[in-house]
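>> received
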Amino acid sequence: MLKLDIILVSYNSEKWIENCLKSLERVEYDLGSIYITLVDNNSSDRTVNLAEDYSNKDLFGCFQIIKSDNNLGFGKANNLGVRKSEQDYVFFLNIDTELEPDSIKELMKAVENSTKDAGLWEARQFPYEHPKVYNPVTLETSWSSGACCLVRRNYFMEIGMFDEGIFMYGEDVDLSWRFRAHGYKLIYVPKSIVYHFTYMSAGEVKPNQFYNSTYMNLMLRYKFGDVKDIIKGHIMYSGLMFVKGPSKNHKTKILTKLLRSPFEGYKFRSWKRKTKNQFKADFKLWDYEIIREGAFYINERPEQTPLVSILIRTCGRPNVLREALISVRNQTYKNIEVVVVEDGPAISESLIVEEFSDLNIVYKASQDKVGRCVVGNMALETASGQYFNFLDDDDLLYADHVEVLVFQLLKHPQNKAAYSISFEVPTEIISREPYVYRELFHNVQHRQPFNRLILMHHNYFPIQTVLFDRAIYDDLGGIDPTLEVLEDWDLWLKYALKYDFLYVEKLTSLYRIPASITNHAERQKLFDEYLLIVREKHFNNKFEINMASIFKDAEYLLNKPPTVIYKIKGMSFKTFLFKVRNKMFYYAKKVLK
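>> returned
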């Protein structure tokens, strides 16, 4: 069993320390292989006394307390703890945390399954998961939170440890980027859960965090960015003079930091001058990565775990299917059945047998080409779960997708279906063998609360976003086999006219669309054709619905901003240009014909 050091840094932490240590006692890992080092930053409360009086020190391989005569800051205190310890793996853990019993076990399992170029592993935070994007297949991330991350000691020492010039906030981004600059990967471990009580309530703005994190954004631009990044940073930081800040002397604080920023920035720039490292950071304004919506969604594990059937339709492209299956393997929810139905001969069967024997997979092939709708119905007929979730073979689920939707349906039993937010990702296929592609950007096309009137006009939940109770299928049946596309919209219309869908405001999946302007235009032409077909099909439908539901849906539409404004809101300029270009090409082609 791998041994690890856990470094805890405290500063007036009497509120947290006892529960943090108790949670460490309960972990499902050999406590004798855990070595705890507590570095106290000169607390003035009872933190040190509580640590010294802690009665279960002997449970662990080591329990030592280091008392600093002054507040060293987060990074420098952690560095001191590392120098006073010696295990090959070091787990940096905030004192205001509590660990789930299997958290360290899952973290160390990820370490053992990683390649040698992995240098850091980050646990998932509850109740608020850190919202930055990660790769749903490889679980790689571009930067990792320092609140609960584990590193290889030798790599950590090699890259220079935490930057002691950063007192608090931003030191984890800096550390992450230096890991990557040295060629090491950062791995997200969503099955390892740590409760981090960093916010008292959703959306809380802490003054110390606000001023330090915004200033460090500017300093990191000096350290890792180019001249354009630095100029943008100064413009952004100067702009804070004109916003309402979280303290009374807001403008004075911003102006003071702004005046000293070129001098401190020059010091931060020394890393680039000395190392000559060509690493280029990708700044996202105040953020350092694309953000998944749902930053303040309260995460909870479902108490019950009914069987969920993931229904995957595929068509002779095992290299594409592989990624979808890996994203299912990465799910934090454990009770999953995967139903894979291939449209045509059993080309993907060998992939499933050789690479995915660990998954509960039921595989079928139609042998003859029968179409996506027929194989979708085959999947529905085959599935044995209480809940169903379609997943096209080129789409991906983030690791918490099933967990989030199952929890919400169990919490709201009056609903028989739930859907979440997803990314739309224009994707350029570079090679099929091997499967290589380039993602242009991530865009949220739909963030729509459940509204039947809008759903009658157009579909706003992509197929992989919906988890639904098999009772709906048993009652109303499956997919219309006569449709070529928009069969999911047709299915949701049929279900939604009788059952309410629950909208979950968290992003948990992504779907791909063609990046090629020609492919996009051909796809749009087919969609426009079937848009009319599906509408015509449902125009003569009669259904019963109470007046309150109609009033609620109508009131929403009356209060909603104009469609153009609503669609553009939150859209990046790059996404906007992509949409405009495709629309212009499509309509120009129609006019020319």
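>> The longest strand covers residues 417-431.
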